[in-house]
Design a protein that fits this description.
The complex is a heterodimer of chains A (about 100) and B (about 90).
Chain A (H helix, E strand, L loop, with lengths): L1 H23 L3 H30 L3 H32 L11
Chain B lengths: L1 H22 L4 H26 L3 H36 L2
Classes of the chains: A mainly alpha (about 100), B mainly alpha (about 90).
Chain lengths: ~100, ~90
C-alpha cells in the first residue's frame, strides 16, 4: 500500500513539473515536449498506483482490467497525437518540412 | 484521504497552468498544448474520484476522456497544419 501511495505522489509531482514546463518554457515545441511526455508519464503512473491499491485492497478485477485498457490506449495512440501536434507547431513556427526549407 | 485531497489541489494547480496556456498562448499550437494538458489533468481528476469513492464508474469516464482527448488533439493538429499551409501559400502568391 505504501508503494501505491509513493507512486501516486510521484505521479502528481510529475504532473506539476509538466504544468511548470507548460507555463515557463519559451518555445511552442519545447512546451509541447514538456506537456506530452511528462503528462503521459504522470497519468500512467497514477493508473499504476491505482492498480496497486485496488489489488492490495481486494476491490476486484474490474479495476485492473479497466485501468490496463486505459493505459494501453494512452500509450498506443498518444505518440500519434503528439507527432501530429509537433508537425503543426513546426509548420506554424516557420521552418516547415514542406518546401520552404530553401528560403 | 487527506493525501487524496492534496492530490486534488495539486491537479487543480496543473489545470490552472493549462488554462493559462489555453487563454494566452501566443500561437494556435500553444492553445492545443494547453488543451492536451487539461485532458491529462481531467483524467487524473477522475482517477482520484474513483479512488475516493471506490466505484468503477469513474474509470469508464477516464477511458472516455482518454479517447476524446486523443481524437481532439489529432484533429486540431491537422486543422492547424492545413490552415498554416494555406496562409503560407497566400503569402507566397503575388
Amino acid at each position: 500500500m505504501l508503494l501505491a501511495w509513493l507512486l501516486a505522489i510521484l505521479a502528481i509531482l510529475t504532473l506539476l513539473v509538466a504544468a511548470l514546463g507548460v507555463v515557463r518554457l519559451p518555445d511552442a515545441l519545447s512546451r509541447q515536449h514538456a506537456a506530452t511526455k511528462a503528462a503521459t508519464l504522470a497519468v500512467t503512473m497514477f493508473a499504476l498506483a491505482l492498480i496497486l491499491a485496488a489489488l492490495l485492497s481486494g476491490w476486484g478485477w474490474g479495476w485492473t482490467l479497466r485501468l490496463l485498457v486505459m493505459v494501453v490506449i494512452l500509450l498506443c495512440v498518444l505518440p500519434l497525437a503528439s507527432h501530429a501536434l509537433g508537425r503543426a507547431g513546426l509548420a506554424e513556427s516557420g521552418g516547415t518540412g514542406q518546401g520552404s526549407r530553401n528560403q | 484521504m487527506i493525501l487524496l485531497q492534496l492530490f486534488m489541489i495539486a491537479a487543480g494547480l496543473a489545470a490552472t497552468a493549462g488554462f493559462y496556456r489555453l487563454i494566452n498562448g501566443p500561437t494556435r499550437t500553444d492553445r492545443v498544448i494547453g488543451l492536451d494538458l487539461l485532458f491529462g489533468v481531467a483524467i487524473v481528476f477522475s482517477l482520484i474520484a474513483a479512488w475516493i469513492s471506490q466505484s468503477t464508474v469513474y474509470l469508464d469516464v477516464a477511458i472516455g476522456l482518454a479517447l476524446t482527448g486523443i481524437a481532439a488533439t489529432l484533429s486540431w493538429a491537422r486543422l492547424i497544419q492545413e490552415q498554416t499551409a494555406q496562409e503560407h501559400d497566400r503569402e507566397k502568391a503575388p
